[in-house]
Amino acid sequence: MADVVYLTKERMKQMEEELHVLQTKGRKAIAEKIADARSHGDLSENADYDAAKEEQGLLELKIANLSKMLSKAQVIKPEEFPSDKVYILSKVKLKNLATGAIVEYKMVSAEEADFEQNKIAVTSPLGKSIMGKVVGEIAEIKVPAGTTQLEVLEISKMD
To answer: What's the whole-number average pLDDT of the chain?
Structure first.
């Protein structure tokens, strides 16, 4: 089951809603653009028609990708994992031993990762280095400037 896509319940719902909107409103809007472009005459020299068909192709690709991902999706819940070690759906507070900086991350699947929201993928280099660690353990991660050591200060479950 290497192809399983792990998602939170919330992310699964967001993706299902996005797929529904793309399949209904998105397809309708593209069909209207294509119809409008066709009404302008000769299709062989119609840039609006070509652009609308290109947009249709991209929309259908996005729909296919979302559908494929959802067909492989499995909802995961924080209570399915122990809270004494870093796992997917853990909130982890780390201290950079070189700088003293303290950061907090939420461990998520690659499909939910968003660095700006401090959600990192368990498959990322940082995620891999802290997976399975307990409070007090030191994780080493290779970065362009060398190796950084991070101490696990706190582990809790995501809300």
So the answer is: 88
